[in-house]
Amino acid sequence: MEWVQDWYADSYYAASPEADPAGPVTGLSRVVRGGSWDVFSALIGDINRNSSGPDTRYDFIGFRVVREIVEPGVK
After folding, report:
1. How many domains does the chain have?
2. CA 44/CA 33 separation, integer angstroms
3. Pick from 26, 30, 33, 35: nearest CA to 8
4. What are phi and psi of 41, to 5 degrees?
């Protein structure tokens, strides 16, 4: 499972844009997506979406480091 930047709201996706919804502006919990070695097999997959407080720690939740690739001479 991995943390994502979006705040979590139960009802957000009912009225969100179809393409790349950014999530609510504020909230109490962050979105956690995907599966883990420590969850039931039915919950493994990229469509699994849960929430957890941003100060919560678990051995089975991580994050993905992303860096934009910029080609030389391209702006």
Report:
1. 1
2. 9
3. 30
4. -60, -30
DSSP 3: E
Question: What confidence tens digit (pLDDT) does each residue in 15-70 have?
Answer: 888 888 888 889 899 988 877 766 666 555 556 777 888 888 888 888 888 888 88
Residue position matching structure tokens 């420590």:
38
Residue 1 CB partners (closer than 8 Å, separation 6+): 32, 33, 34, 35, 36, 39, 48, 50, 58, 60, 61, 62
pTM across the whole model: 0.63
**Structure confidence by residue, pLDDT tens digits, 31-46:** 888 777 666 665 555 5
Residue 5: which of 47, 24, 60, 40 has the closest Cα? 24
Q: Which residues span the domain enclosing 25?
A: 1-75
